[in-house]
Amino acid sequence: MQSVTPNPDVAQVESLAHTKVADCYQCGKCSAGCPQVERMDVMPSSIIRLVQLGCVEEAAAAESVWQCLNCLTCSTRCPKSVNIAGVMDALKEISIEKKCVHPKQKRTLAFQRSFLNAVKRNGRTNEIEMVAEYKIRGFLNDFNPLLVLKDADLGLPMFKRGKLHLKAGSPVKDKALVKRIFAKCSAE
Question: What's the pTM value of the predicted model, to 2 decimals?
Fold first, then answer.
């Protein structure tokens, strides 16, 4: 009997997601229960099938992995306990690593990076600092000046309701703890 060499990309997905994609027998319950499935270009069950077939980069390039809400409905409904939401998260990481993020989701990635950078610097978000970095990242990504101003009309209403703070907030007291948390996450 010939042994099958495991695909290193599939092994990476399984390691990141803490699940075994081979356990999925394509019942479709994940896709049937997904609240986002109508917005997805590839259904969750099809994403899992792509990974099973070793087409990890193709699965990671799908817009669906970025449409996932991580509501865990798919993972909860799975009769074989495949962590489908975990696979979606793993594919997000792989899409960033392999630089195959779906073009429509580059702004989502820019927002996530800006948010995490603000938390890394201060231990919490600073809206003005975060939005400024996000808008600069977005502009450098597509050079569209209209998108830089896209949400400007929301600033005044948010400020009036106390949802936008123009004064820079003070960083958390234990910035070393925040640094350790980010270091541990990066190491994993």
Answer: 0.79
